[in-house]
Write a structure and sequence with these properties.
The chain is of the alpha/beta class. The protein folds into 2 domains: about 40-285, no CATH class; about 285-450 and about 455-524, NAD(P)-binding Rossmann-like Domain (Rossmann fold), CATH 3.40.50.720. It is about 40% helix and about 10% strand. The protein has a 6-stranded parallel beta sheet, with helices on both faces. Strand 10, helix 14 and strand 11 form a beta-alpha-beta unit. Helix 1 runs antiparallel to helix 5, helix 2 (about 60-80) crosses helix 4 (about 100-120) and helix 10 packs across helix 11. The protein starts with about 40 loop residues before the first helix and ends in an 8-residue tail after the last strand. About 50% of the residues are buried.
């Protein structure tokens, strides 16, 4: 799922030292702008109402939309409002701080520009929802609990799914993800939208429907941006900021919303060392790789459309790809499983420790040629044309790269299919979203990513245990038995195979980039 690219392959890195004084979770010198008697929840509810209104309003489309976006681009260039500060220290602080005034200065200036030039063209709801979003985010983040357990009195959370930004200036195709959150940013070119969000604290993107206990899941943004890698020279500072933001997001999810479980599957394993760098003792963290790996297998089987599994190839031998290859080799012991990574030493290490169960391919092109199902777990793009491949008839490409590595149109033109790793909860007992779909899911209510489902399943299982008479402490202990804090193993995946079956989780209808995929090209 959604992750900041930190190298050419997924991999675990050694811990780094960093000096980030002043970048702690509770950034000082921020005013809480409440009106008298208005709570942060009131502001949040008002924001949600406005953005729901904005979603129903007619939108500017086509050439008219492009014209507004180009005018906005010119305005940004003229004002310099998104210019980065000079110097490593200042850029580190810029990306690491939460500053209401900085964010308001950018977003309110932009909405004022739209209001001045496009009043009556762009709906008032889009403008107002974007403006109130700033105070909603900061007010909720800065709320201080008065209860003895350190959790807000109105907290109703069960789990949180922590996500960073996929959009950046080099990945403009993901810019659509922000449109529900801050609707007026629709009128800014995609590659500029991430910079508008710098300075925000962790905030609630959306909520899931409550369970029978009245507790709900929360989709929470950790302000980790891919542009950080380009704009901050020190890898130590990059990693330090990102880890702090993820920790702050988990702490916020606990104190403001009372969650017991936090899913980290949208972040690279190296960022938190499989959750070991998350410091909140009251929250169960889980990597998401158990649910993802189980769903990769289910997605591949669904993509074969009834044909038997004959051969598998896995591209990328980082933490995720290597684990997927090992699990699939155990699940399908009688078929060949090939692997490839541009880091040959890493690939050879993975092959060696699996004692003949994996086959090292000479190249990515050879792996594709010899495999019926190809799982992509890389960082970067994968082009068939660049590899000289023009025929992949009948092959299924399961793209678990983040961001996506494969162009579905290119693969389909060559006779194959690209499927994203998406699951579904047909019963709505585990996860039912209120409408936010990452601009990536075909069904905005019941579809979900495997890493997202992993956190929701743990919370659902713990709910069951409490309903059967367990205390909260006992339910937490039961949840920890399933949580994953290291490279995923076949045994860990088997636990989620059980939970998928217990709660009826299945592969969603074949899809990629939020659109259903016709499997006609792979029916023999």
């Amino acid at each position: 799922m959604t992750a900041m690219p930190l190298g050419e392959t997924y991999r675990v890195i050694e811990p780094v030292e960093h000096d980030l004084a002043g970048l702690s979770g509770q950034t000082p010198n921020l005013e809480i702008a409440y009106s008298e008697g208005v709570t942060s929840r009131d502001t949040f509810d008002r924001y949600i109402s406005l953005r729901e209104q904005a979603a129903t309003k007619p939108k500017v489309e086509g050439e008219a939309l492009l014209a507004i976006q180009e005018a906005s681009r010119a305005w940004v260039a003229e004002t310099g409002i998104l210019d980065l500060p000079e110097g490593e220290a200042e850029r580190t602080r810029y990306y690491g701080s939460y500053d209401r005034d900085v964010v308001r200065g950018k977003i309110e200036a932009f909405t004022d520009f739209l209001d001045l030039h496009y009043n009556g063209v762009i709906s008032d709801a889009e403008i107002e929802a974007t403006r109130i979003f700033i105070d909603s985010a900061f007010n909720m983040y800065e709320d201080a609990p008065t209860t003895d357990n350190g959790v807000m009195e109105d907290a109703d959370g069960s789990f949180a799914f922590i996500v960073p930004a996929r959009m950046d200036r080099d990945k403009p195709e993901y810019g659509e993800e922000v449109e529900l959150v801050a609707p007026a940013l629709r009128y800014l070119p995609n590659e500029l939208r991430a910079q508008m969000m710098i300075g925000l604290p962790p905030f609630v993107i959306d909520t899931y429907e409550p369970n029978e206990e009245g507790r709900r899941g929360y989709l929470i943004f950790a302000p980790v941006f891919g542009d950080m890698q380009k704009d901050i020279e020190s890898r130590s500072n990059q990693m330090g900021i990102a880890r702090q933001h993820v920790n702050n997001a988990v702490d916020y999810a606990r104190r403001r919303h009372g969650v017991d479980v936090a899913g980290l599957g949208a972040t690279l394993p190296s960022l938190t060392m499989y959750g070991k760098y998350v410091t909140n003792p009251d929250v169960i963290t889980t990597t998401g790789h158990g649910g993802t790996t189980e769903l990769i297998a289910l997605t591949a089987e669904a993509g074969l459309n009834g044909r038997p599994m004959e051969s598998i190839g896995v591209l990328g031998m980082g933490a995720i790809g290597a684990s997927v290859a090992e699990v699939l080799a155990e699940r399908y012991p009688n078929i060949p499983v090939s692997v490839f990574d541009i880091n040959h030493k890493l690939m050879e290490k993975v092959v060696a420790r699996n004692e003949g169960r994996l086959i090292a391919a000479e190249s990515d092109a050879e792996l594709i040629a010899s495999s019926q199902v190809i799982v992509s777990a890389i960082v970067g793009e994968l082009s068939l044309k660049a590899m000289g491949i023009d025929n992949v008839y009948g092959k299924v490409f399961v793209d678990d790269s983040q961001p996506a590595a494969l162009n579905p149109a290119e693969v389909e033109a060559a006779g194959g299919n690209v499927l994203w790793v998406v699951g579904q909860d047909p019963t709505n007992k585990v996860l039912y979203r209120n409408g936010y779909d990452y601009a990536s899911l075909a069904d905005k209510h019941t579809d979900a990513f495997g890493c997202e489902l992993e956190a929701a399943l743990l919370a659902r299982y713990m709910t069951d245990m409490r309903q059967k008479g367990m205390s909260q402490e006992q339910a937490l202990a039961a949840g920890r038995e399933y949580a994953i804090h290291e490279a995923v193993t076949p045994d860990a995946v088997n636990k989620f195979t059980y939970l998928f079956e217990r709660y009826g989780i299945v592969a969603a209808l074949p899809q990629a980039f939020g659109k259903h995929v016709e499997l006609k090209t792979i029916i023999e």
